[in-house]
Structure formats: C-alpha cells, structure tokens
Design goal:
The longest helix has 15 residues. The relative contact order is 0.17. The chain has a two-stranded antiparallel ribbon. Helix content is about 45%, strand content about 5%. The chain is built from 4 helices and 2 strands. The chain is mostly helical. A hairpin with a 5-residue loop joins strand 1 and strand 2.
Length: about 100
C-alpha cells in the first residue's frame, strides 16, 4: 500500500527542525506550546521534544492568522490550541483592565 507509508520528512521533528521548516524561533515555539497549548510534542527517551507534521501545520496556520493582524491568543484558539495555562500572569482574569 503506497499511502500507508510515512512521507519522507513528515516527522517526528526536533524543535530545531520545526523552527527551520516554519521560520519560527525555538523560543517562540516553546512559548506558544506553554501559553496556548498550540503544540503537543512527544518526548524522546532523552527528554527532547518531538513534533509531528500536524504540529508544523498548526504553526503555519498560526503564522497566517498573525500576519492578518489577529491576536496570538485568538489565533491559537482558531488553530486548535488548548486553553491557555493558568500560571501565565498575562492571562489571569485578576490582571484584566476593567
């Protein structure tokens, strides 16, 4: 079956490769993962993040929304990121401006 084989270069990717393919810095990728749950890497035995081709597509979609002027939190919601983590002080409702 031709279609059951993984395509070359379809993952898993380490964060440097995801960064290279997407044009987004590793630091920003980690921030999107932490703040918005945008990425869902598995971990290697050594603890390295391993990203899928689905993660790459989410990053590319995020970039498109941001280029259109959308706020990062809104873009992440549309792309399918999880709810933001509560330990981010910028996302705490107590810090909201009334």
């Amino acid at each position: 079956m031709l279609y059951s084989l993984p395509m070359p270069g379809s993952g898993p990717f380490r964060i440097g490769e995801l960064s290279r393919r997407s044009g987004v810095s590793p630091e920003l990728l980690r921030a999107w993962e932490r703040r918005y749950g945008l990425l869902s890497p598995t971990r290697s035995k050594g603890g390295l993040r391993l990203y899928s081709s689905d993660d790459l597509e989410r990053v590319r979609s995020m970039q498109r929304f941001l280029a259109e002027g959308m706020a990062a939190a809104e873009a992440a919601t549309l792309v399918g990121g999880a709810a933001p983590l509560p330990d981010d002080p910028l996302l705490d409702p107590a810090n909201a401006i009334a």
